[in-house]
Amino acid sequence: MDRVKVSILGSTGLVGQWMVKLLANHSFIEVIKLSASPGKVGRKYGEVVHWFLPGDVPEYARDLVLVSTDPSDHKDVDVVLSALPNDVANAVESKLLASGLNVISNASPERMNPRVPLINPEVNWNHLTVLREVKGNWLVKNPNCTAAIISMPLKPINELIRELHIVTLQSVSGAGYLGISYLAIDGNVIPFIKGEEEKIDAEINKMLGNQYVDHYVPWGKNVYVTTTRVPVKYGHMAVIHAVLNDSIDQKQIIERLRGFRSFPQEQELPTAPREPIKVLDRVDAPQPMRDLDPMAVSVGRVLVRNNILRMVVLGDNLVRGAAGITILTLETMKALKIL
Amino acid sequence: MDRVKVSILGSTGLVGQWMVKLLANHSFIEVIKLSASPGKVGRKYGEVVHWFLPGDVPEYARDLVLVSTDPSDHKDVDVVLSALPNDVANAVESKLLASGLNVISNASPERMNPRVPLINPEVNWNHLTVLREVKGNWLVKNPNCTAAIISMPLKPINELIRELHIVTLQSVSGAGYLGISYLAIDGNVIPFIKGEEEKIDAEINKMLGNQYVDHYVPWGKNVYVTTTRVPVKYGHMAVIHAVLNDSIDQKQIIERLRGFRSFPQEQELPTAPREPIKVLDRVDAPQPMRDLDPMAVSVGRVLVRNNILRMVVLGDNLVRGAAGITILTLETMKALKIL
Amino acid sequence: MDRVKVSILGSTGLVGQWMVKLLANHSFIEVIKLSASPGKVGRKYGEVVHWFLPGDVPEYARDLVLVSTDPSDHKDVDVVLSALPNDVANAVESKLLASGLNVISNASPERMNPRVPLINPEVNWNHLTVLREVKGNWLVKNPNCTAAIISMPLKPINELIRELHIVTLQSVSGAGYLGISYLAIDGNVIPFIKGEEEKIDAEINKMLGNQYVDHYVPWGKNVYVTTTRVPVKYGHMAVIHAVLNDSIDQKQIIERLRGFRSFPQEQELPTAPREPIKVLDRVDAPQPMRDLDPMAVSVGRVLVRNNILRMVVLGDNLVRGAAGITILTLETMKALKIL
Amino acid sequence: MDRVKVSILGSTGLVGQWMVKLLANHSFIEVIKLSASPGKVGRKYGEVVHWFLPGDVPEYARDLVLVSTDPSDHKDVDVVLSALPNDVANAVESKLLASGLNVISNASPERMNPRVPLINPEVNWNHLTVLREVKGNWLVKNPNCTAAIISMPLKPINELIRELHIVTLQSVSGAGYLGISYLAIDGNVIPFIKGEEEKIDAEINKMLGNQYVDHYVPWGKNVYVTTTRVPVKYGHMAVIHAVLNDSIDQKQIIERLRGFRSFPQEQELPTAPREPIKVLDRVDAPQPMRDLDPMAVSVGRVLVRNNILRMVVLGDNLVRGAAGITILTLETMKALKIL
């Protein structure tokens, strides 16, 4: 397979570091540029990065000299992967797109742009096919971390659902390494995350809907979401109460979830989890400290009572919810020969 | 007002300690006996208790010699207050009742007994009036800590509700001082609390229903509950999505909640909060570390969208949810002249 | 007693908030100006401050309009109290001094200036008397929070000591409300606090030494210090191994510590703790969650073996270590008629 | 090499689980029996164990049926490895020894028995050689977890030391999985661990001394220790202030620590870390969350001032401090042909 050359924007942040780590020794994606904020440009990645992840900085990245976000610094790249913070992403990504570059981005701006596919590969890889009809370069967005995790177990049962009640318990790393102070969150719950509830509702509706070249038709279900921040380091959890059109045997639900496979699994893409939804039988699962999987979503406490399906969902907000989903999207595009 | 003489069962546990503390200098309730497990009987409370609460052991309690749970040790008492653990409560309380004593208890056994009033004073003080028709001694139960907190803001809007979706985030103290180890819960969420979901559903339906001398008629609404344990020390939180019969202006909801007053407020009972439901305007309220009130319930994030009312509720699981509710129940019974 | 008019610099930070709180209803100190960073100037304190402390913003402060740090905004003030961060303190305080104002400051610059008294009132109130010989306005500094706590139990035994080995376990609030992120410190220990070890050594030597108008003579003992940051919210702890000149009975040490009273106690100053050193007998004391006192220092685990005295010391880094010590210093100066 | 057949006592506890995990796929040690408390005997390990460690229960262990601690259940075993709690260890181990079995044990009883070698392999592997002169079966003890960690960096500089001041910051797992409740330790420090200070002093003196067949001669230095429990899950830290006989260049100290290799390294024993002492240059190292190594000890903040050497030491209390040291001891004995 041809190699794909990429650069990573925001490479020294938590999500950027995960991209750097996950792309070490990738079978066909090659990182040739790492970019960071102006103060770090020109210095070696290994000397500048405050490495937060287990293990050491991957060897290939250590001596890469950090470049700017300017298009001129990304000329020989096939795709730019963006792990930029939301507040700077729009300006930078717009410039890169205007210069003719392809971008896959985790940042929130333009996610709801009707022409921009919003992709969680197992859920709506087929939305990518609209890009075949697009001339020139493109922008692909990945969803909000929580929407990425929640949309997975909704996919195989989506036509059974009438309405959703979702309460999230989201980890501190979702706000970045320095995002929340110990005094603010230790032993506490903050039942508010700015903008998050609206994003989850809209993005789930976009991903579970239909995408066309210049517009999309949303799924069209009411998604009532309350988000909370809890003193957990890694892993977002969500309790889902799904109002179903009819009651249905809960064993059937579990079978559908367990049996779910999609394009990334069929193609055996390098970053795809073999089993994207792990249904756990332990009565007190899933727990962030015990059951977190980088790319698969863990589901527990599945129960149907009347026409209400309850399940508890857990996923890795930094990998499935951010760095990993971007890479899997790129792998999917390659397999679809869009790239 | 005549003084009421009480004894406290389980006085060295977390809930028992709160009873001991709240009854120091009470205007008409007098603690004359403290009881504890066999190994501690005969020793002074102040020497035996591992005091967990802020401040010192109240002076009145220090030199009280601990008695057993045997009826003979509670003869000259008007009411026995029980803070016993659920697993020993049934045997002990049955014996006390058989001997002719009155009991108000926090423990779970007999809560759903059709003849036993289950009381959260502001919510269903009127259920106590059936005891006027009862000859001899009585048993009154207080609800599960989470049911005590959640039932409060449901009361003033209960006739608007068709169905409830509730997700709780409960603190570690709900399992007792030694109940959950640091390794098990720090940085973790455990989305399962044994028996809790069933209790919350059943007890809310009992308290919001009608009580008669020998049976009760439940509220009759579906209450879908998922309970989780979070690394918070004190305070239980619940996210409530209430399906309403019709849409309703959210300002009206807030007014009803804020304006709610009940018998304990009208009677200005010593332990009654002046304002039982505090609706907080801060966008990120309520938080256990900032907004916990011993007897009032804090409500935030009130939102109506379509016919769904969302609110986040926080209450003190050890005071409103346990020790305080027992004392307020006794005060209410005294004001109703049942005692 | 004449009233003293003060302003508070850095009034919206953690230490500034404690000053605002402690000065509500003070018998002779009156806060007439609150100052904050440029972006907040001109707005009401109650609207701007993100209040971190228990209880509400004191009523007197709510409607005070924030002023700048410029001398012109502090003209009618007797003393300026500074709770500024170390990095901006020097420039601001210099300007205020140059304009003829008196300053008592918590910030680290100028603490080791030979002409500036460094004051922990119970320990070296007498150093303040040199100011009687100074014409014009003055600067008084308070020590580093840990030095404030540690110096207290050293004072009554200082002449017995030959050398000190100190290991600190310092709480997160010492770095400010937003100072340390949850991801960095939860479940972790960071055995390094920049500049702290040098400050503790130097400041203890200055406070336990002799102060003259234009120089000081240090105590002259070796103080070997290792500082660590632990996941605790409030309260700094230190384990002290003091090498004594001779062995001494540990009961005598305890008596000296317990019996210690100084000028603030004799004068019954409003902020002075009645008993500045609390020696706790509980075998596992002192603990931040159980034994923290705002102005007194708690001491436990006192043991003499050979000529080594071991004790564990705990104090409130924000009150005794910062806001409270400044107020007590002002009270002491008033009692000494320096003001 | 001949295979060694072992059984593990206390195999379902934290330390026992680590032994089970570390011995999966061992090149010459084979676990043939797992033993647990009476209530679990007769059931399969995989069904009974509440597995706390990362990853799954090793395959070999899942179907092993748990046996008792009775000698008759360990007949065909070469060595019994004991991960028993201290309070039951003595009775059980005595019985096994009396029946002629060999035992290597982590439990504290008999550690100071003059005839029993107390072994941290890199530190005093040579103490094992006295067993060559012993007829019949033997008991070997491993030290207290903190003593195991601290003794390592003391070994290569032991002859320079006159006296030690040690303050420990020990993790919660040292008290077992259920040992310390969240309410007791979160956000707190407990400056007392029962019996720990005496053990560390005595055991370091025994390990750094000389062992003979029927007695030992201790190192003979004063070791002043204060132990504290901190809210950290895994890893014990110690701050060491060593009073040296003379001042010495700190680079020399670092070289000695870094260059230290011992018998287990020379023999390339399977469980031996290649570099037993890792000296870290990062200014804020070592930290439990970032720098914990299973078998090596991490050292940071090395500083010599006057004749005082300061260093901060971190080690894994469950592996180097318990399960790993036992296995390494067995490997060492095999290499010494004592077994």
From TrEMBL, chains A, B, C, D:
Quote the SMART domains the UniProt record gives: Semialdhyde_dh (SM00859)
User: Which family does the UniProt entry place this protein in?
Assistant: Belongs to the aspartate-semialdehyde dehydrogenase family.
List the molecular function annotations (GO) for this entry. Answer: aspartate-semialdehyde dehydrogenase activity; NAD binding; NADP binding; protein dimerization activity
InterPro entries, per the entry: ASADH-related (IPR051823), Asp_semi-ald_DH_pep-lack (IPR005676), NAD(P)-bd_dom_sf (IPR036291), Semialdehyde_DH_NAD-bd (IPR000534), Semialdhyde_DH_dimer_dom (IPR012280)
Entry keywords, A to Z: NADP, Oxidoreductase
The molecule here is called Aspartate-semialdehyde dehydrogenase
Kindly indicate whether the keyword Membrane belongs to this entry. no
